[in-house]
Structure to design on (632 residues):
C-alpha cells in the first residue's frame, strides 16, 4: 500500500491511479448492469461471483499457451482474446441454464440459495481439482488485448478504453432491452407475477431469458477482468467482492435504473478502492483495521440505503418507453384492485 | 432448526444466520478464553470432557447475546422494512448485508486467526466396533437432543408455540384472532437466535473457532432446511443429519476439497424431484 501513497503525490501517479481505478469500476459496472437485468424481473442472484469467475477462467484457459512445468490446467490453446470473450459469455449462459432449469419455476428464494451455493462450489472445485485450473496457485500471465502492439505505460489507457467501450456497449444493450416490450414484460412480472401470467406471458421463460442474458454479461465482465489483471485465483472471486460488492452498487445507485447503477459503481468503487489511500493518514488503531472497517461499512451502507433510500441515488423511472403514454395512470386504485382480483380468479380456475 | 423456524414464521430467509452462529461461537470463546478467566469463570474440566464450567457459562452468555442481537436487528431493520412493505428480496439483501457486517465485526475484535476452546489434543475413546468418539461429541449429541425436545415442548405444548405456528400458517388470520404477531416475531427471533448461538458453540467445540465458520455452514444449513421442508423443525433436524452424513461419507469416493459441494448437489436434486422437501406440505 505504501507505494500507492507515494505514487499519488506526483501528478503522474494520480493520473495512473485514476486510470486504473476507472478501469476497475467500469468492469464492476458491467457486472452491476448485468445484475440489474436479472433484478428487473425479480431474480435474486446471490452468486454473481460464480458467473464472474466462470467467465474469467474460461477466457483465461482458452487464451493461455499450453501449460508447462508446475502449471496444470486444461485447454491452453492460445486462442485469440476475442474468442475467449465469446466463450466466457457462453460459459456464463450455460451455467445460468443449468441453475435456472431446476430453480426458476420454484419459489423466488431457491435461486438465491442455489446461486450463493454454486459460487462456493466453483471456488472449491477450482481450489481442489488437480490439473483443471492450477488450483490455488491461480492462472498467471494472462495476456491483455492489444498488449503486444502498445508498449509500456501507455497500455493502461488501452485497458481503460477497452473496459469503457465494453461498458458502453453493454449499457446500450441493456437499456434497449429493458425499454423494449420485452423489458416492460420483465417489470410487469417482477411487480405482479399473477397479472403478468393472466395477460398471457410465459413468466418462467421471461425469467430464464433475463437470467441467461445477465449471466452472459457477467461472464464477459469476468473475461475482461482476467485479461486486465493478468492473474486470477479462486481467492479473487470471493462472495464479498464478487457478489456483495456488486449488489451494493446496485442498491446504492438505484436498482432498475441503469444510469444509477453505473453511478453506484463509481461511488461504491471509490469508497472501496479509495480507503487504502487514506490508510496512512489514519491513527494506527484504525489504519491497521481499515479493511475490516470498510467491510463493515459496506454492510451498513446497504442496510441504510434499504431503510432510508430504497430507490437508490437515481430512482427507477416509471415511464420506460416513449411508446407508453406519459403522465400518471388514470385508473384509480379500485380499478387496479378489481383487475387484480379478476386476474387471480382466472388463475385459480 | 433456528433457521427453519425463522424462515417459516417470519418468511425471512435469514442469510445472517451463519454469522449469528459465528457470534455465538466467539461470545462463548470470550468467556472461556483468558479475558473471561479473569472474571472468574475459569475452572477445571468435567471428567473426560475437554471443558468445564467456563463453557457452560459461555453457552448461556452466547445464547443471551445472540438473542439480544437478533432482537436489535429486528427492531432496527426488519420491522421498518416490513412497515415499508418490503418484499422477500429486500429482506434477503438486508440480511446478507447484516451477515457481511457481523463477520467484519468479529474480525475487528478477534482478528482472522483460529482458536480452540481448550488447547491441546483430545483423544477419542473407542466404543463398539472400532468406532472412535470423543467425549465432547457425546455432549454435542446430548445437547442437540435436549434442544430438540425443548423446542418440541415450546412449539406444541405452550400457548406461545401454538401462536407461533398459527402465525407461520397465516399471519393475517392469526392477527385477526387476537394474536400479537409483533410479539410472536420477537419471540421467534429470540428462539432462532438462541439456537444459532448454541449451534455455533457446538461447532466451535467440534471443530475450531474461526471468524467465517458460521458463514461456511450457511449452504449446508439451507440444504438441510430445504431438504426437511421450509418451516419444519423436525424436517430440518433430519435434513441436517442427512446432509452431514452425506458430506462425511462422500470423502470415501471424492476429493476432500469437494466436500462443500455435496449440500449443493443435494439442494439441486431435492429441488428437481421434490421441491417442497421430504416432509414439507404442499402449498
Amino acid at each position: 500500500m505504501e507505494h500507492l501513497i507515494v505514487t499519488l503525490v506526483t501528478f503522474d501517479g494520480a493520473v495512473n491511479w485514476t486510470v486504473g481505478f476507472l478501469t476497475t469500476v467500469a468492469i464492476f459496472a458491467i457486472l452491476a448492469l448485468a445484475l440489474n437485468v436479472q433484478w428487473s424481473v425479480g431474480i435474486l442472484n446471490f452468486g454473481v461471483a460464480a458467473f464472474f469467475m466462470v467467465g474469467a477462467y474460461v477466457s483465461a484457459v482458452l487464451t493461455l499457451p499450453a501449460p508447462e512445468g508446475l502449471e496444470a490446467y486444461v485447454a491452453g490453446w492460445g486462442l485469440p482474446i476475442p474468442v475467449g470473450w465469446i466463450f466466457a459469455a457462453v460459459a456464463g449462459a450455460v451455467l445460468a441454464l443449468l441453475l435456472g432449469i431446476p430453480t426458476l419455476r420454484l419459489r423466488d428464494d431457491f435461486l438465491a440459495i442455489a446461486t450463493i451455493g454454486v459460487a462456493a462450489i466453483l471456488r472449491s472445485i477450482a481450489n481442489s481439482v488437480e490439473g483443471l485450473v492450477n488450483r490455488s496457485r491461480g492462472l498467471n500471465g494472462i495476456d491483455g488485448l492489444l498488449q503486444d502492439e502498445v508498449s509500456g505505460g501507455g497500455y493502461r489507457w488501452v485497458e481503460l478504453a477497452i473496459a469503457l467501450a465494453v461498458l458502453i456497449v453493454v449499457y446500450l444493450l441493456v437499456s434497449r432491452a429493458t425499454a423494449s416490450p420485452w423489458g416492460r414484460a420483465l417489470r410487469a412480472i417482477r411487480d405482479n407475477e399473477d397479472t403478468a401470467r393472466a395477460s398471457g406471458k410465459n413468466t418462467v421463460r421471461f425469467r430464464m431469458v433475463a437470467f441467461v442474458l445477465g449471466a452472459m454479461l457477467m461472464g464477459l465482465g469476468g473475461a475482461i477482468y482476467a485479461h486486465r489483471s493478468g492473474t486470477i485465483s479462486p481467492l479473487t472471486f470471493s462472495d464479498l467482492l464478487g457478489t456483495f460488492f456488486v449488489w451494493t452498487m446496485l442498491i446504492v445507485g438505484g436498482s432498475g435504473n441503469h444510469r444509477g447503477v453505473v453511478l453506484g459503481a463509481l461511488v461504491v468503487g471509490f469508497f472501496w478502492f479509495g480507503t487504502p489511500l487514506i490508510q496512512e493518514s489514519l491513527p494506527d488503531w484504525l489504519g491497521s483495521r481499515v479493511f475490516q472497517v470498510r467491510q463493515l461499512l459496506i454492510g451498513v451502507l446497504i442496510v441504510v440505503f434499504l431503510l432510508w433510500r430504497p430507490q437508490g441515488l437515481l430512482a427507477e423511472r416509471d415511464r420506460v418507453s416513449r411508446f407508453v403514454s406519459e403522465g400518471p395512470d388514470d385508473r384509480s386504485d379500485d380499478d387496479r384492485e378489481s383487475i387484480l382480483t379478476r386476474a387471480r380468479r382466472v388463475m385459480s380456475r | 432448526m433456528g433457521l427453519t423456524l425463522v424462515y417459516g414464521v417470519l418468511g425471512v430467509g435469514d442469510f445472517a444466520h451463519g454469522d449469528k452462529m459465528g457470534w455465538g461461537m466467539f461470545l462463548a470463546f470470550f468467556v472461556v478464553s483468558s479475558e473471561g478467566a479473569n472474571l472468574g469463570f475459569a475452572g477445571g474440566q468435567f471428567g473426560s470432557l475437554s471443558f468445564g464450567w467456563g463453557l457452560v457459562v459461555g453457552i448461556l452468555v452466547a445464547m443471551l447475546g445472540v438473542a439480544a442481537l437478533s432482537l436489535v436487528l429486528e427492531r432496527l431493520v426488519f420491522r421498518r422494512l416490513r412497515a415499508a412493505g418490503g418484499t422477500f428480496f429486500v429482506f434477503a439483501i438486508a440480511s446478507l448485508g447484516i451477515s457481511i457486517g457481523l463477520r467484519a465485526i468479529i474480525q475487528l475484535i478477534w482478528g482472522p486467526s483460529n482458536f480452540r476452546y481448550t488447547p491441546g489434543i483430545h483423544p477419542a475413546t473407542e466404543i463398539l466396533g472400532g468406532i472412535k468418539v470423543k467425549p465432547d461429541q457425546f455432549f454435542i449429541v446430548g445437547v442437540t437432543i435436549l434442544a430438540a425436545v425443548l423446542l418440541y415442548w415450546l412449539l406444541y405444548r405452550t400457548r406461545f408455540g401454538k401462536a407461533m405456528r398459527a402465525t407461520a400458517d397465516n399471519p393475517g388470520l392469526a392477527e385477526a384472532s387476537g394474536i400479537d404477531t409483533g410479539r410472536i416475531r420477537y419471540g421467534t427471533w429470540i428462539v432462532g437466535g438462541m439456537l444459532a448461538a448454541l449451534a455455533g458453540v457446538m461447532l466451535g467445540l467440534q471443530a475450531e473457532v474461526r471468524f467465517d465458520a458460521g458463514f461456511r455452514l450457511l449452504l449446508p444449513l439451507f440444504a438441510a432446511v430445504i431438504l426437511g421442508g421450509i418451516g419444519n423443525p423436525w424436517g430440518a433436524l433430519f435434513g441436517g443429519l442427512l446432509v452431514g452424513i452425506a458430506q462425511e461419507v462422500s470423502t470415501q469416493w471424492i476429493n476432500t476439497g469437494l466436500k462443500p459441494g455435496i449440500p449443493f448437489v443435494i439442494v439441486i436434486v431435492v429441488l428437481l424431484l421434490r421441491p417442497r422437501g421430504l416432509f414439507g406440505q404442499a402449498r
